[in-house]
Write a structure and sequence with these properties.
- Chain B: It catalyses: 2 a quinol + O2 = 2 a quinone + 2 H2O.
- Chain B: Belongs to the cytochrome c oxidase subunit 2 family.
- Chain B: Residues 267-306 are annotated as: Disordered.
- Chain B: This is Quinol oxidase subunit 2.
- The complex is a heterotrimer.
- Chain A contains six helices and no strands.
- By secondary structure, chain A is mainly α.
- Chain B is of the alpha+beta class.
- Chain B has two domains: 2-71 and 81-112, Helix Hairpins (Orthogonal Bundle), CATH 1.10.287; 125-267, Sandwich (Immunoglobulin-like).
- Helix content of chain B is 38%, strand content 22%.
- Chain B has six helices and twelve strands.
- Chain B has a seven-stranded mixed sheet.
- Chain B is elongated, with a radius of gyration of 26 Å.
- Chain C is mainly alpha-helical.
- Helix content of chain C is 67%, strand content 1%.
- Chain C has helices at residues 2-8, 17-39, 43-51, 56-86, 95-129, 138-157, 185-213, 226-257, 271-305, 312-325, 341-353, 355-369, 378-401, 403-409, 413-443, 449-475, 492-522, 561-567, 588-604, 608-627, 637-646, and strands at 580-582, 633-635.
- In chain C, helix 8 packs antiparallel against helix 9 and helix 13 (378-401) packs parallel to helix 16 (449-475).
- Chain C starts with a helix and ends in a 5-residue tail after the last helix.
């Protein structure tokens, strides 16, 4: 396998470059996926049937915690990639570990938030609004869950195999994924929660 | 203008001959909206035929002239990149055609979406046409009449159909009076039609709605205002009133013959005329009840949402 | 007793002798295949060479075979419909069967015939045209195929297990909801299309990456062969359109399985939202199919006119414009929904605008033949037939785009005639042209020209007879999807004509199979690597193509490098042969296909335990892939030289 040492480790082989470009294109598809979910949400937002309206069920505290936790995790994974570029395996693994823990916190709060919705009578079946809300949040949450597993696997591989072109490539791609989830969350926070509470 | 009409009529004649002499329904309009649409159709057939013929002639010429069997063995075709002027013509002419058709299309859109031309100063007759599997219910709120699967209308008067559905999306279509429009369960759409001539016309649901779709038709009879008034009086003298229970049995899936009632279902089961996002809490309870009516035949339906 | 109750759900709600006969036929065929494989000891061969392959050429051939099989399945549906409508008040099919048949006809032809057909050509041709060894992600490519295949099989068993979908290929809600479609049929629709849709999305990502990153040295974007350009743009559309379908199908699935209210008529559900999402995907989908077809025509017309493609850059720009416009026209599928004159006017104009770039392409093909030296081979006949027929399909599209007039065309046979008029001469003819054109490259012998010409004429005459009468019956008020009509309507004679045309087409398709059989037995195997005297890079390697495609990476001079090397002395292959790195085969994609099939089937019947186990299985496969160390394998210089020698001298 030809390794180009003038490039950062994650870009150093042709397959690595292909993987990164392919992942960017995948994120393009993900943007369309979430754009469709947002469109559905905005269309159905006011169609609450006999169920509650957004303002009646949204609570600021868990949402702020989630936002804070996820934004921080995006920062820590950035630090992790920086450490990786410097070749500092342990620092990189620590930052990745923190990122995953923060992701887990986010997920915990989101589960709590979903239970709250269930208790106030906003279930998946209640209305078009609740279905669109829970599908949008659930799709994002599902992505985070998948990311937790994926990130853990990568962490294990880095631990076992060290920073190779392969593991560096995987870590970098994972960081792209994680940043993307953060960006989606910013949209969710602004256009679903803040708009709904106003 | 006259030239254009001769062209159009001669082409219509050609189409009729092809179809076996009977005029095609859509091209045999009996009302101003259908006429506008038939004119648009004939106009576009005309322009499009020219395009198709031009392409075919060029193709035939090239195939004839440049076929390999006609050329010397050592003929080597040249390398041609493209020519600015040829490409400008190839882009420019289609743009002009499309621009002209767009202009006609936009104009026609506003015409078919408003009271028919020449009828603007008349009070339109409002008829609510609602579909259920696989019937049409026509409510005449002014006259206090409701019919099933047949429609009586006065000629020379604009008619405003208010369309909605108890169930799947359907499409209300009377080809000789004008094009179709969807009837849906949570909003009311409006279709403007008028009949210039008395006569019987075919009407149907054009949008697939399940097993009974093929037979989901109705008869339209257009008659003079005097005859129409006579019919209204006759209905009031002879027909039974429509009760809520009776209406609910009518909604059950299946086919029915023609039926006539006094009173309309709008009194106890109003049309979904409000937009959903403007619904206040009170209204949404109503619409909730209303949707129960719609689905009363489906006992197994999951109502866990309520 | 409980045991029986469990199996009751798999019974067909609306059986008929024909369905029972198909069940028996399916069972016998399956037993026959298994017995044959066992008797001839071909299981190992099947597993090693096909089920686990990651080679783009073999995957392409598997797509091709699947597409042909599905063509016959969809064709059988079509001929049944035309037979039922041939005479007034016919009793061949009842309403329910007719509804099921036109639904499956639409889905099978678009999703499981046309899509794999274009994927077949993308897989077979694109890496060769850009001088690459394989696609960017060979294993993902195999997974794409197996997901498509799982979806196709899932959809196809619907009519013998639990009942076919019956709400039309558009599956509009609320008709497709539980209230009006009670059988599991629509669940099949949602899940099967979802699974193969995920596969399509992966192909989209794979092909885009391949084309952007793996072109041979010297091949700039504007030197790519036209088919590669068309494949690239089609795949960009896939990446942006398919996620919309994914979301819509998820919502439709939860509405049916978990009683949500996205598209229902209660609790705020909105039936029009489905129609919008469906067509935001659905209209670009049409261009996903037609653009690669345009690409194939460009290659074929240029080869058999012995001329370079006229107006290369305007061809590219027109495709880019078409791809952008394709996302801006979806509302024209429901002008009659009551959006009002303004919205209709906007979408009427955007729709007509597509005619301009399409027209440019038609003229470019005409000018490519100009001053050429035209040979009337079978692929060329399809391309020549395509031009006038597709023009008719295109101009009727412009007619439909006039929204006020569309109130009269909508939902009628006129519309049916229009889209068949674009899809059959546009896509199907292109696929058959491509099949005949590329057949020798991948199978080592030519298809018989005489039989091919008979096929072409049967299909063309059949097509005209089958579909042109529909323009008239549409204008005469025959709505689409009606299972019968009365004699008084007067639709009878023209529908009989359509049936005759459909029958001719059916015979035409059968002659293709005969042609393959006949040519396999009789055609010469000594055809060289460039039997058509073609122009682009895929003809520069051997026939059959070695697994590594090119022993040495080609050097590119223009969009017709191979022609340059034949006529202008361009040196295509420079330097020494080096060791080649190739990916390993893997059984995981095939296994994942099976798991997807089982999980999908379980979801369809709401069998939650196997459904959840299936989902876990999918994640386990993904996790295993993450931990797997697979660096591929190397083909030694000696081995390459031996292969090259065997195939006819080093190239």
């Amino acid at each position: 396998m030809h390794i180009d040492h003038s490039q950062p480790l994650e870009y150093s082989t042709q397959q690595n470059q292909l993987n990164i470009l392919g992942f960017w294109i995948f994120l393009g598809a993900e943007i369309m996926l979430f754009a469709t979910l947002f469109t559905a949400y905005f269309t159905l937002e006011g169609r609450t049937g006999s169920g509650p309206t957004p303002a009646e069920i949204f609570e600021i505290t868990p949402v702020l915690i989630e936002t804070f936790v996820l934004l921080t995790s995006s920062f820590t994974i950035g630090l992790g990639i920086h450490a990786m570029r410097l070749g500092r395996k342990n620092a990189m693994m620590t930052f990745f570990g923190i990122t995953l823990l923060l992701g887990l916190c986010f997920l915990g709060v989101e589960v709590f938030e979903f239970m709250h919705y269930y208790h106030v009578g906003a279930t998946y079946q209640t209305s078009a609004f609740t279905a669109a809300l829970l599908t949008t949040l659930g799709t994002h949450g599902g992505h985070v869950t998948l990311g937790l597993f994926w990130g853990t696997f990568i962490l294990l591989q880095v631990k076992k195999r060290g920073l190779t072109p392969e593991t560096a490539n995987k870590s970098f791609i994972f960081s792209l994924y994680w940043h993307f989830l953060d960006v989606v969350w910013i949209f969710i926070f602004s256009f679903i929660y803040l708009k709904g509470m106003m | 203008m006259r030239k254009k009409w001769t062209l159009l009529t001669s082409m219509m004649a050609l189409v009729f001959v092809l179809a076996g002499c009977e005029p095609l329904l859509v091209l045999d309009p009996k009302g101003p909206q259908a006429e506008r649409q038939a004119n648009d159709i004939m106009l576009s057939i005309g322009i499009m035929s020219v395009i198709v013929i031009v392409v075919m002639v060029i193709l035939a010429y090239i195939l004839f002239k440049y076929r390999a069997s006609k050329q010397p063995d050592d003929y080597e075709p040249p390398h041609i990149h493209g020519n600015k002027w040829v490409e400008i013509v190839c882009v420019g002419v289609p743009i002009l055609i499309v621009a002209y058709l767009s202009f006609v299309s936009v104009k026609s859109n506003y015409i078919v979406e408003s009271t028919p031309e020449g009828y603007e100063n008349q009070e339109p007759l409002v008829i609510y046409a609602s579909s259920s599997d696989w019937k049409w219910h026509f409510s005449y709120p002014e006259e206090g009449i409701e019919t099933v699967n047949y429609l009586y209308i006065p000629t020379d008067r604009p008619i405003e159909f208010k369309l909605y559905s108890y169930g799947p999306i359907t499409s209300f279509w009377i080809p000789q009076l004008g094009g179709q429009k969807y009837a849906m369960s949570d909003m009311v759409t409006t279709l403007h039609l008028a009949a210039d001539e008395a006569g019987e016309y075919m009407g149907r649901n054009a949008n697939f709605s399940g097993k009974g779709f093929a037979e989901n038709t109705f008869n339209v009879t257009a008659m003079s205002q005097a005859d129409y008034d006579e019919w209204v009086d006759e209905v009031h003298d002879t027909a039974k009133p429509l009760t809520e229970d009776e209406f609910e049995t009518l909604l059950e899936p299946g086919h029915l013959g023609q039926m006539t009632f006094t009173g309309t279902h709008l009194e106890f089961s109003p049309a979904p005329e409000h937009a959903h996002n403007e619904v206040s809490d009170e209204d949404s309870d109503e619409s909730h009840e209303h949707s129960n009516h719609e689905n009363h035949t489906e006992e197994e339906t999951d109502h866990s949402g309520h | 007793m409980e045991f029986l109750e469990f199996f009751e759900r798999f019974a067909i709600p609306h059986p008929s002798p024909a369905i029972y006969a198909s069940m028996v036929a399916i069972a016998l065929t399956s037993i026959g295949i298994v017995a044959g494989l066992t008797y001839f000891k071909k299981w190992g061969y099947l597993w090693r060479e096909w089920l686990t392959t990651v080679d783009h050429k073999k995957i392409g051939i598997m797509y091709l075979v699947s597409a042909l099989l599905m063509l016959f399945r969809g064709g059988a549906d079509a001929i049944m419909m035309r037979a039922q409508l041939a005479t007034p008040d016919a009793k061949l099919l009842d309403a329910q069967h007719y509804n099921e048949i036109f639904t499956t006809h639409g889905v099978v032809m678009i999703i499981f015939m046309a899509m794999p057909f274009i994927f077949a050509f993308m897989n077979l041709i694109v890496p060769l045209q850009i001088g690459a060894r394989d696609v960017a992600f060979p294993r993902l490519n195999a997974l794409s195929f197996w997901l498509f295949f799982a979806g196709a099989m899932l959809f196809n068993i619907s009519f013998v297990v639990g009942g076919s979908p019956d709400a039309g290929w558009t599956s509009y809600f609320p008709l497709a909801g539980n209230d009006f479609s009670e059988s599991v049929g629509t669940n099949y629709y949602m899940l099967a299309i979802q699974i193969s849709g995920i596969g399509s999305l992966m192909t989209g990502i794979n092909m885009c990456t391949t084309i952007l990153k793996m072109r041979a040295p010297g091949m700039t974007l504007m030197k790519m062969p036209m088919f590669t350009w068309s494949a690239f743009i089609a795949n960009v559309i896939i990446v942006f359109a398919f996620p919309v379908l994914t979301v819509a199908l998820i919502m439709g699935t939860t509405d049916r399985l978990f009683a949500t209210n996205f598209f229902t008529t209660e609790s705020g559900g909105m039936d029009m939202l489905w129609a919008n999402f469906f067509w935001i995907w659905g209209h670009p989908e049409v261009y996903i199919l037609i653009l690669p077809a345009f690409g194939l025509y460009s290659e074929i017309i240029s080869t058999f006119s012995r001329r370079n493609l006229y107006g290369y850059s305007s061809m590219v720009w027109s495709m880019i414009l078409i791809s952008l416009l394709s996302f801006l026209v979806w509302t024209h599928h429901f002008f009659t929904m009551g959006q009002g004159a303004l919205t209709n006017s906007i979408f009427s104009i955007t729709t007509m605008a597509i005619a301009v770039p399409t027209g440019v392409k038609i003229f470019n093909w005409l000018f490519t033949m100009w001053k050429g030296k035209i040979r009337f081979t079978v692929p060329m006949l399809y391309s020549i037939g395509f031009i006038p027929l597709f023009t008719i399909g295109g101009v009727t599209g412009v007619m439909l785009a006039m929204s006020a007039a569309d109130y009269q065309y909508h939902n009628t046979m006129f519309l049916v005639a229009h889209f068949h008029n674009t899809i059959i001469p546009g896509v199907v003819f292109a696929m058959l042209a491509g099949l005949t054109y590329y057949w020798p490259k991948f199978f080592g012998f030519m298809l018989n020209e005489k039989i091919g010409k008979v096929t072409f004429w049967l299909l063309t005459v059949g097509f005209v007879l089958a579909f042109f009468p529909m323009y008239l019956t549409g204008l005469d008020g025959q709505a689409r999807r009606m299972y019968t009509y009365s004699e008084a309507t007067g639709f009878g004679p023209l529908n009989m004509l359509s049936f005759i045309g459909a029958a001719l087409m059916a015979i035409g398709f059968v002659t293709i199979v005969y042609n393959v059989y006949y040519s396999f037995k009789n055609s010469s195997r000594d055809i060289g690597s460039d039997p058509w005297d073609a122009r682009s890079l895929e003809w520069a390697t051997h026939t059959p193509v070695p697994e590594y495609n090119f022993a040495r990476t080609p050097q590119i001079s223009s969009s017709e490098t191979f022609w340059d090397s034949k006529k202008n002395g361009h040196v295509l292959f420079k330097g020494e042969i080096e060791e080649i790195h190739m990916p390993n085969n893997s059984g995981v994609p095939f296994i994942m296909g099976i798991i997807f099939f089982i999980a999908g089937f379980s979801f369809i019947f709401a069998l939650w335990v196997p459904a959840v186990i299936g989902l876990i299985g999918i994640f386990v496969c993904m996790a295993m892939r993450s931990f797997e160390k697979d660096h591929g394998r190397h083909i030694s210089v000696k081995e390459i030289k031996e292969t090259e020698e065997k195939l006819g001298g080093a190239k």
